[in-house]
Amino acid sequence: MSDAPAPPEAAGAVLDAAGYQALTQATPAQIADLTRFLEMLTEGNAVMNLVGPATIPDFWNRHAWDSAQLLQLAPQAKTWADLGAGAGFPGLVLAAMLKGAPGAKVHLVESMTKRCRFLAQVSKELDLPTEIHNVRAEDLSLTVDIVTARACAPMSRLLGYARPYLKRGAVGLFLKGQDVVSELQEAEKAWRFESELTVSRSDPRGRIVQVKGLSRV
């Protein structure tokens, strides 16, 4: 388990596009796509609940970098499933960063139709390598390299949602907050699994949980 402090350039920083580019080595085209995504998110958030309005000014750290850091933990992964994709974090950011990579595909799994329409609108305008599934996460079974989620559910329930993907060989990379240890302890009452924690580089209070080998107790 890695529990080292987050890098000083990222910990708690309010990034702009240039700061994000420095952290991720994003291309100008990727920055342009994410800038347009921010514009669409701001417009969409005015008419539906996508993200907390107070988080939009910190888009580059709170949402974009928080999502993109997953690529550094799985640099070879090409196919992803984002469960409870919501406003597109991490899924749309991952898709923007993977755009143009051979074989890249991000499956956005979201049960709310309104949010699926937003995801489809952004994906179409930015020509992202996504596929949108307007279903409950546990009702879909896909073969992907990585299954991920952010702000979707407590670990015990999230593992149930992710089980079909993990059974098909995916590795779980889940973005969690500061209560992750208690969530894992609760999840261990119902599940057996291997887990490893990595400190979030966008917020040192957060953790990324890697999960393998899931089975029922």
From TrEMBL:
Record gene name: rsmG
Protein name: Ribosomal RNA small subunit methyltransferase G
Classification via PANTHER family: S-ADENOSYL-L-METHIONINE-DEPENDENT METHYLTRANSFERASES SUPERFAMILY PROTEIN
List of residues binding S-adenosyl-L-methionine: G84, F89, A137, E138, R150
Any GO MF annotation of the entry: rRNA (guanine-N7-)-methyltransferase activity
Organism: Caulobacter mirabilis
This enzyme's EC code(s): 2.1.1.170
The family this protein is said to belong to: Belongs to the methyltransferase superfamily. RNA methyltransferase RsmG family.
Recorded catalytic activity of this chain's protein: guanosine(527) in 16S rRNA + S-adenosyl-L-methionine = N(7)-methylguanosine(527) in 16S rRNA + S-adenosyl-L-homocysteine
Pfam families registered for this protein in UniProt: GidB
Keywords carried by this UniProt record: Cytoplasm, Methyltransferase, rRNA processing, S-adenosyl-L-methionine, Transferase
Gene Ontology CC, one term: cytosol
Function: Specifically methylates the N7 position of guanine in position 527 of 16S rRNA.
Subcellular location: Cytoplasm
Broadest EC class assigned to this enzyme: transferase
